[in-house]
Amino acid sequence: MDWNLLGLSFITIFLSELGDKSQLATIALSGQGQSRKAIFFGTSSALVLASLLGALAGGAVSELIPTKILKALAALGFAILAIRLLFPGAEQESEQESEQALTE
Question: What is the pTM for the complete model shown?
């Protein structure tokens, strides 16, 4: 087992999951006073299954597409998301124009 890859994967996912919607949903569920143990095992198994599916899909895609191209596509995808988050005005303006066209 590659312990460096294991540690890197753990740290990356742990930091990216802090404060995300699945963690907030877990907090909301546990705040209802139900069985915290059942909530922990349910949410943990859901995250493990989602991670497993991601790893399997990533492995299958990496067999078809070279790693260098996959990294470039991932970087492009993250760049597009970052630009959309930094400049949400263009999307909102087009939505407002669509709504105005529908009301006329």
Answer: 0.56
